[in-house]
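Journal club prep — side note

Before the paper discussion, L.F. wants everyone to see what a predicted structure for a comparable chain looks like in token form. Sequence:
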Amino acid sequence: QRTTILLEMLNTISAVSIANAVPGGKAVEQFSPQASLRTSTVSQAALSGHSSTLDDLAPALCLEDLDVRSCCQSSGTCCYQDECDLPAWMDGGNSTGQVFRLANITVVLPQNIRELEAPAYDLAIGTVVGNPFKGQAIYTLTDTHLVHVRVVHSSEEITDLAQGYVPRASADTMLVRVPLTNEVARRLLDVQQTTPDQEAVVATCLRWGLVDETPQWIAEENVKLPQKICTNNAGTVECVWVVDCQWRQTGFMSVTEAVVDCAGRPLGTTIFDSCQVCDGDNSTCSGCDGFPNAVYDGQVLDKGCSGHGTCAGGPSCSCCSDGRFQVAVPDVTTGDPVSECPWFGIMCHRFCTSSEVDSVLYEGAVQSIHCSGKGICRPTTAGPVQCDCVTGYGDAPDAARTGAHCGLLLPVPAEPMDETMKAFIQIGVPIMAVCCCCCIGIWMFAMLKRKQMKKGELMVEETVLKLPMPTVEEVGAEAVEKAKLENEALSGKRDPNAPPRRPHEEVEYSRKLEQLRKERANQTNIIKFDISELSPEEGALAVPEAVVSGFITTSKYEPPPDTSPGIDPGLVQTFQRLGNFKENLKASAAEERRKTP
């Protein structure tokens, strides 16, 4: 509401300031920190193509001329665009360089203005600092400029100046040159066209108007490039940037920077599709399945099917569809000519034929092979194509390099083996091998034990048999008495030379004899010798206990029998062996100590 009041005040000020003016008279200009206003009275005849400006250098800069380039070239007072980069216009002869300033608004009314009835009209142009329509989301690059045409001495406004509602050419529109700063103009010149990788930002003309009865900024759909114009002002090259906006209606104007869509329309909605085609439908880079930029088996899918097939309404390529791209080859079994499709793969990009060919390098094929007339190609949608060779043929070692498969004649296999023999080889032979291994193990274990026994026998020969026999005195009387008792127990006969016993002695003798018989019945023929009973010096030789027991129970190495009367020969032999063994251990231990350093 405050904006509307401000604009109405400007319109009122403009009307009052020119209340007594006549057509062709001097225009009235009013300046303030917030707004600038210029009002002039123009006759109906002079209204078409009439220009008005707030810029003092407008004549020198040709700002009021529709064709600025031609005006500058003919007048020589200014330069236009790239012409200003020539040395003569770079410093003006005083090495100060070009000085950029902000121009003021310039308006040129349409050449083909519509028929008007009033004899004269008021033309008001002006600038309001900033954007009074701050409630709008569009950001403006410049101040807001106004153009009003009123019937003279009246508040009636003429908003539509063109003939008809749609402009037919530039002569049917009103030209409004809106000034830009040097920084904004150069930024808008960086990118002028939107690409799939970068959006272009350009200057776009705005006009305040109604859209569906809602007041808002309306953008012009044409791209506007900033124009550079320079003039030599008292030895200083002064340059300005302007944007030409063309409207067929009066009102409030401004300029904004807008993103240009791929169709070149500022603030447009046309975009690139996934195939980087403006306003496309993804059809140029999608496969038969409709998905754009899909990659399968190393191939970017498209509807071309490598030129060897068609989509045929399916999600993948149908190679050699409708009988096209087929080749005639001899049948691998009968030799009769048949037709086959030599193209395979998701994109029909791999070549394979069953017949033998001189060369397998086919244009457009990722892999080219043939089956040498001895096989057929295995259909695949991905991965290398392979040949299924007929019986008796296989691939040569260089098949992967040459592409010729199934070209090697394989040896004829032997007749099938009998099932019984096959079962014997598969089951019987392994069992026999295991049994042989077990027998060899048992034999090796027996040989090891035999070796150990031989070692024990040699030790017996070297130690025990060389020991002297113990005497009767060493054995002792008690041992002799026990030996006699054991002898009678074994033989069942009493010694005839024994003195008679008293009754109680006879009873005791019978009891001992019966007890000895029981002990004999429970004992075995193995006598164990505990080597731990020897002294440390006597036990210096580590002789296994099993060896000692074996020696004592081996009758082969027994000494000659003792013929002493009344003594058990077995007992005497045992004591003799033990004594000799003890002495031999002592001697052996002493010998080992001498040998050890």
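L.F.'s comment for the group: The longest strand covers residues 200-211. Keep this in mind when we get to the figures.
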